[in-house]
Amino acid sequence: MAKMQDKVMIRLRDVDKCYGTNKVVKSLNLDIREGEFLTLLGPSGCGKTTTLRMIAGFEEVTEGQIFLEGENVEDKKPNQRDVNTVFQNYALFPHMNVEDNIAFGLVEKKVKKPEIKRRVGEMLKMVQLEGMEKRLPAQMSGGQKQRVAIARALINRPKVLLLDEPLGALDLKLRKQMQFELKHLQKKLGITFIYVTHDQEEALTMSDRIAVMNQGILEQIGAPEEIYNRPATKFVADFIGETNIFEAYVEEVMDGRIGISLEAGTAAVKAAGFHKEEMVYICVRPENLKISAEPVIDFNIRGKVKEHVFIGSVNKTIVELVNGQELKITTQPDVELLSMGSEVNLFWNEGKGILLHTKEEQIYNLIENTVKIEGGGDD
Amino acid sequence: MIKKLGKKLPTIVMIGPTFFWLILFVLIPLCYVIGISFLTKNAYGGVDGILSLQSYKDLFQSEYLKIFTGSLWLSLQTTILCLIIGYPFAYLIAKAPANRKKYMVLMIMLPFWINSIIRIYGWNTLLRTEGVINHLLIALGIISKPLEMLYTDGAVLLGMVYDLLPFTILPLYTSIEKIDTSLLEAARDLGATKRSTFMKIILPLTMPGIFAGSIQTFIPSLGLFYISEMMGGGKTMYIGNLIKNQFLSARNWPLGAALSIILIIITLILMKLYTRVGSLEDMA
Ligand SMILES: Nc1ncnc2c1ncn2[C@@H]1O[C@H](COP(=O)(O)OP(=O)(O)OP(=O)(O)O)[C@@H](O)[C@H]1O
Ligand SMILES: [Mg+2]
């Protein structure tokens, strides 16, 4: 993972993007470090492509600034930015063979012929397409086209490579393989990658950091483990992996602990920064939620075992709470299952339940996060 | 037997009338024209039933050859001008927002619904010595004597380009519209200037459209006769006028027929080329 004192390669400052009256990116602040693999992750329509296109220069920002290596790129056309893009549909030039496609950027820069030839050869080797120089894009498979697209962008030695769902059109197996190759390539070349996907598994396996977006807002940015284990908002908790979310009310605050009441019971958990009588969300991953036939200390949440499903490596149990909410619990196959219909007590181990403030408080949280990022980026 | 007929009946009903139509109005007249071209003319402007190759030999007279080359040259000029003028138009339409595009295409098609002789006559009133443009220029004091604009080769070319421009624009528009915008973005992204994007991506990818547009302009331009009469005053002869004259005034039907056959052959060759390019494009 990149360290805090690393140089900032791309900086987005309060970037807004409107299409007509529709604001699709809302005051986005983002620092992307040199050599980092940063993924923009979010549901369809959240503004990932738009953000990428603003960095590439295909879309103008409505408000705010974008800096590339500290320089404002507002007046720079796409062909003047040291940034290259790998398009989702590859966008290979259909009338040019592989060699000419890859060489395109260098020819435009008027690089000498022998140098171009050498570098094209290098690229072909890197993406393992030697011997396919003369093929036309129409004569290649999806995976091969993808490699050409990557080679065509990387031959220019850009400071940043932008990839918009580059593996979206590939089948699962090829996708996994390309994920691995791309990550490997990025490490080897040390080029900053900004990668767009809405596949969270892809994001978790490949990225140094993930920026989770929702409806044009940056919800959280952090390392994959951080995003997964310590989601900052309900949206992130819900979007990344599976999770059980309870709404609860803070009954009392004692030193380092709070007493909460849910629709289906009460609990006392370790928490700081919450005050009496506020509403909170509690997020517990299925693998962290436990059931027991016996009463559990600190917890009094009761439900009924509704269903067991065996899903390969784990067992999944559905528990219905007294208020009708259904919870997902996963257990290892060697854990004995409680019989269907039996009354159970729910609990989780200390630190496994994530408490989040509800809406108004989240905004406060976000501001805090932004300040932190700014502080980190400025050194 | 009856079963077989029953199976074929729908096909016969469907294409029968078209087939009949084609035989009656295309094949029979064509055979008639071919037949006449091998006969001899008589002194009364009719045709005698004597087989001969005379009319084909006549084609090689230098005056006819000159008319042929003159026509081809005019058609070539027309086609090139139509391409140069039509390309930017086609590009603008193809890149316009979807709701405006409809209307722009409609504007291009609109003249088709007005008889082209009437439209050319409109140009005639604009350009003639006593015409609108000359009046205007004199009134504005820009010129003192009316300009000779009508009945010049330039006027003929103008009329041809005007009449045939839609035939060039439509295929160009179709092929420009087919280009995926992300290709143009990719070129820009890789450092290409606007000019170089046009030369290296847009132009080569619209070659099929350029070719289709050229042929769809060139072929009809060869046969047009009223434009050279109305705009050029018939001063210069073109194939179209020549053929018309052989049938109507010189009354040398065999020669007119032979000229028509040559025109048809040129057209067929171009059509063949056109379909070849079309199928190549489908393959890509
Ligand atoms: N050219 C445009 N004009 C108007 N609205 C647009 C335009 N491009 C995108 N939008 C809107 O902006 C929003 C964000 O679009 P964007 O393409 O950035 O989403 P995305 O996160 O990339 O989604 P996906 O995962 O589906 O690709 C969407 O609501 C979309 O409808
Ligand atoms: Mg997108």
Overall geometric form of chain B? globular
- Give the biggest sheet of chain A: 10 strands, antiparallel
User: How far is it from the N-terminal to the C-terminal residue of chain B, by CA?
Assistant: 45 Å
Helix content of chain A: 25-40%
Fourth CATH level, the homologous superfamily of chain B: MetI-like
The total domain count of chain B is: 1
The CATH class of chain B is Mainly Alpha
Q: From the 3D coordinates, which CATH architecture of chain B would you assign?
A: Orthogonal Bundle
- Kindly state the percentage of residues in helix of chain B: over 70%
Strand content of chain B: under 5%
Largest interface: A-B, 23 and 18 residues
Radius of gyration of chain A: 25 Å
Tell me what the structure shows:
The complex is a heterodimer of chains A (379) and B (284). By secondary structure, chain A is of the alpha+beta class. Chain A has 2 domains: 4-237, P-loop containing nucleotide triphosphate hydrolases (Rossmann fold); 242-363, Beta Barrel (OB fold (Dihydrolipoamide Acetyltransferase, E2P)), CATH 2.40.50.140. Chain A is built from 9 helices and 20 strands. Chain A has helices at 48-56, 98-108, 113-126, 142-154, 172-189, 200-206, 224-229, 234-239, 359-377, and strands at 8-19, 22-33, 37-41, 63-68, 71-72, 83-86, 160-164, 192-197, 209-214, 217-222, 244-254, 257-262, 265-270, 279-284, 289-292, 299-311, 314-321, 326-331, 343-348, 353-357. In chain A, the strands form 3 sheets. In chain A, strands 11, 12, 13, 14, 15, 16, 17, 18, 19 and 20 form a 10-stranded antiparallel β-sheet that branches. Chain A has a 6-stranded mixed β-sheet with strand order 6-7-8-3-9-10, sandwiched between helices. In chain A, α2 (98-108) packs across α3 (113-126) and α2 runs parallel beside α4 (142-154). Mean pLDDT of chain A is 89; it is low at 361-379. With 284 residues, chain B is mainly α. Chain B has a single domain, classed as Orthogonal Bundle (MetI-like fold), CATH 1.10.3720.10. Chain B is 77% helix and 1% strand. Chain B has helices at residues 2-37, 54-58, 62-95, 98-109, 116-127, 132-139, 153-178, 181-189, 194-205, 207-223, 226-232, 239-248, 253-283; strands at 40-41, 47-48. In chain B, α7 (153-178) packs antiparallel against α10 and α7 packs across α11. The longest helix of chain B has 36 residues, at 2-37. The chains are: A alpha+beta (379), B mainly alpha (284). At the A-B interface, β6 and α2 of A face α8 and α9 of B. Bound molecules: adenosine-5'-triphosphate and magnesium ion.
